[in-house]
Amino acid sequence: MSVLDINQDDNIAARVGDKLKGRVAFVTGGTRGIGAAICRSLASQGAILAAGYGGNDEAARKFRDAFAVTYHTPVSIHRGNVADPGDCRRTIDEVIAAHGRLDILVNNAGITIDRAVLKMADDEWFKVLNVNLSGAFFLSQAALRHMAERGSGRIVNVSSVIGETGNIGQANYAASKSGLFGLTKTLAREAAFLLARSGKLSDPEGIGLTVNTVTPGFTATEMLEHIPDKVMEKIIAQIPLGRLGKPEEVARVVHFLAADASSYITGQVWGVNGGMDM
């Protein structure tokens, strides 16, 4: 059985509510896997979506066209290199220019280049850190400036349980995902400070400016397709709940952290990994 056959639900109800109506959300790595599920979940509550992608123009266009049919609203797609600070700033500016505002940033883009520590090349280390950690920093930096001026916003970083547990052959990936925890907590403190300094923190009508992280475990996406069945069986045996996660399960937690109901939650790490971080 393919990883992608495991209880996937690509048909989150097209529109089930208005909790995010009018909010603009930018999801990096948003045209596939967990990112696409996050886009669908946010759109189901009325959010206006912008999806970032790295290079597959055809796949991005297919996602955009299918999304528009399902949700009866266009999604803008934005090609960029999250490892490039200048491109991060350009992309945030591009999203704001296209939609007039940015309310929600989901730093979901990530890569793996697995190699044992003694065999890892310099560029294999830096490439993963630059995409997974530095990219989240530079995108958040650009978004935070805009959100602080408006007095509200949500930043959600997508980390990984590997950032908590480590994993053989993934020193670069584990370091990059663990680094997001410290980045999240610092951004959360600075966001609150910025609002306090401008007098917007005590606004009784405000929803605040919060920053949080989710830590998915092994999730049924194309990133796991290359793993042999016997190895997959061993992985699943390590998960207390005994199965892979679904992209939609991660998306629902991101959705909550992006909504008004989470306004008193900031600087936190939310595990969505079947109990692997217990």
Give the helix/strand layout:
Elements: E1 24-27, H1 33-43, E2 48-53, H2 57-71, E3 76-79, H3 85-99, E4 104-107, H4 122-150, E5 153-158, H5 162-165, H6 171-197, E6 209-216, H7 229-237, H8 247-258, E7 269-272
Parallel strand pairs: 1-2, 1-4, 2-3, 4-5, 5-6, 6-7
Helix pairs in contact: 1-8, 3-4, 4-6
- Quote the average pLDDT: 93
Give the strand order, joined by hyphens, for the main sheet.
3-2-1-4-5-6-7
What share of the residues does DSSP label as strand, in percent?
Answer: 5-15%
List the helices and strands in order: EHEHEHEHEHHEHHE
Tags for this entry?
single chain; 278 residues; alpha/beta; Rossmann fold; 13% strand; globular
Describe the fold and architecture:
The chain is of the alpha/beta class and 278 residues long. It has one domain: Rossmann fold (3-Layer(aba) Sandwich). 44% of the residues lie in helices and 13% in strands. It contains 8 helices and 7 strands. The protein has helices at residues 33-43, 57-71, 85-99, 122-150, 162-165, 171-197, 229-237, 247-258; strands spanning 24-27, 48-53, 76-79, 104-107, 153-158, 209-216, 269-272. The protein has a 7-stranded parallel sheet with strand order 3-2-1-4-5-6-7, with helices on both faces. Strand 4 (104-107), helix 4 (122-150) and strand 5 (153-158) form a beta-alpha-beta unit. Helix 1 crosses helix 8, helix 3 (85-99) runs parallel beside helix 4 and helix 4 (122-150) runs parallel beside helix 6 (171-197). The longest helix has 29 residues, at 122-150. Residues 4-8 have low confidence and may be disordered.
